[in-house]
Amino acid sequence: MAKKYDVYGIGNALVDMEFEVTADFLSKALISKGVMTLVDEDRQTEIITTLHGIQHKRSCGGSAANTMIAVSQFGGKSFYSCKVASDETGDFYFKDLMDNGVETNLSTSSLESGVTGKCIVLITPDADRTMNTFLGITQTISSKELIEDSIKNSNYVYIEGYLVASPTGKEAAIKARKLAEANNVKTAITFSDVNMVTYFNEGLVEMVGPGVDLLFCNEAEAYAYTKTNNVVDAAKALKKIAKVFSITLGAKGAFVYDGEKEIYVVTTPVEAIDTNGAGDLYAGAFLYAINSGICYAEAAKLGCTASSLLVTQFGARLQKEQVLEIKAKTL
Length: 331
Hints:
Blueprint: E1 5-10, E2 14-20, H1 23-28, E3 36-38, H2 41-50, E4 54-55, E5 59-61, H3 63-74, E6 78-81, H4 88-99, E7 103-104, E8 117-123, E9 129-134, H5 148-152, E10 154-160, H6 167-182, E11 186-190, H7 194-199, H8 201-208, E12 212-218, H9 219-226, H10 231-238, E13 242-248, E14 254-257, E15 262-265, H11 278-291, H12 296-310, H13 320-330
Parallel strand pairs: 1-6, 1-10, 2-8, 3-9, 6-7, 10-11, 11-12, 12-13
Antiparallel strand pairs: 2-4, 2-5, 8-9, 13-14, 14-15
Helix pairs in contact: 3-11, 6-8, 9-10, 11-12, 12-13
């Protein structure tokens, strides 16, 4: 019998606020470039106060949320477990998820008091994205946010690596994986960010457990996790923890292991201005494709095509019309 959801995701709910800045600004503000750094609310407020960049529109984000929205935009069915507060930002987040066709554990009547998490995304002229994140109430995301019936009624459970930074979040991620395994639901995980791999390695190993069905990571994350410095050696090590995996290679495309063979997907060069969300969109397109019976090579091609368009504009999300155009051209 067909499952209700293609993908059930769990991750941090963060409202993204994107700014264009210079590398000099990052240096003067003592912000580490190109990675995600966790900060407290005062530090985030301080950064916002000193920003002289151009702010683009805010949107409901967090890595896994972007991926679940992408699954929905492409025509799949997704569910997202997360935690926001009963403030204006939380209401905005809930509405944005619903408007994008993603079902969720959230309901306006069940939200707790507190502060919804926010992520300042700083885009430099080289198209690199630097994130400073105040987790807010999502730091306390726990197994309480899991909806077991929805997990059982999904083809895949997709776990965001960022959850490793929260003890209760890590616990929820492990429980979601185990629930999936016990109910013949496939498991997928994204490493999320090289800082997560570097500073929370033991927790990430716990989250992966005996192994997952599908793993997403980029080149830097793959090398950091496997302690290697090239795709061939990284792939050899990742085969021990994932039946299928994809390593995104930036402008070079992607490397996919489909369980039997290794596949390189080459992309057409583009003029990138903002790489924020590219990996999340890639994962969403990929997950949509394999749930639709499309082979891994074509799934990677769809992900690369979508991400190549995304990086030519600001924001972590494509417009629905753009997604439909990509589907028409690629599939």
